[in-house]
């Protein structure tokens, strides 16, 4: 089986070529620095045409900042000034890294192209996923069956205890057995009587 290469999934439309001259990549952003705060810092250097503050869209970090963003200024001069001032500047606990967007080492962009995104799993990965799901379902079914069995055994135990309490024959039988145990002398020999007996 041959697997065809997957088509890259664009996360954002590619900016026009002239926008690259005014587009900056800001990385190493402290997680405590909010989107609003960073926007206010970037606005000090000129009018912003586009501002992309990126967040994780899935996984354990869903909703958390990715640690980098993109800013497109109105003019190249504004972008150059922001680059010169902010690159290496301490913002909260980290030094910002500012580069031109087309040269930035980001998770998503390599130059002007997107990294290829795998849209489908290979047959082996799909089979492993199905096997894992089936194993989980089997374990859950077994646990449920064990729980039901335990409840049945408990119910049987309780019902037999109730039946013993309600049946007078069982109670009398145990009382008779306890009385027989008290008798020490054998049945074929008379019991010796203690005390004063008359000799003849």
From TrEMBL:
Region: Disordered, residue numbers: 1-20, 174-200
PROSITE patterns linked: RRM
RRM domain segment(s): 22-103
SUPFAM superfamilies membership: RNA-binding domain, RBD (SSF54928)
Keywords: RNA-binding
InterPro entries: Nucleotide-bd_a/b_plait_sf, RBD_domain_sf, RBM18_RRM, RRM_dom
Record's compositionally biased regions (Pro residues): 7-18
Protein name, as recorded: Probable RNA-binding protein 18
GO terms of molecular function: RNA binding
Domain of life: Eukaryota
């Amino acid at each position: 089986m041959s697997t065809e290469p997957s088509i890259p999934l664009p996360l954002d439309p590619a900016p026009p070529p002239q926008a690259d001259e005014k587009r900056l990549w800001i990385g190493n952003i402290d997680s405590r620095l909010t989107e609003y705060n960073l926007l206010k810092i970037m606005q000090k250097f000129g009018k912003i045409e586009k501002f992309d503050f990126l967040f994780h869209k899935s996984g354990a970090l869903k909703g958390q900042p990715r640690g980098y963003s993109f800013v497109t200024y109105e003019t190249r001069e504004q972008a150059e000034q922001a680059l010169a001032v902010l690159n290496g500047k301490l913002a909260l606990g980290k030094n910002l890294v500012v580069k031109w967007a087309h040269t930035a080492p980001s998770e998503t962009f390599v130059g002007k192209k997107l990294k290829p995104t795998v849209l489908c799993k290979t047959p082996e990965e799909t089979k492993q996923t199905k096997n894992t799901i089936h194993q989980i379902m089997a374990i859950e079914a077994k646990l449920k069956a064990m729980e039901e069995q335990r409840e049945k055994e408990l119910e049987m135990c309780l019902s037999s205890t109730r039946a013993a309490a309600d049946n007078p024959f069982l109670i009398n039988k145990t009382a008779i057995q306890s009385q027989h145990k008290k008798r020490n002398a054998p049945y074929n020999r008379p019991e010796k009587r203690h005390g004063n007996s008359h000799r003849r």
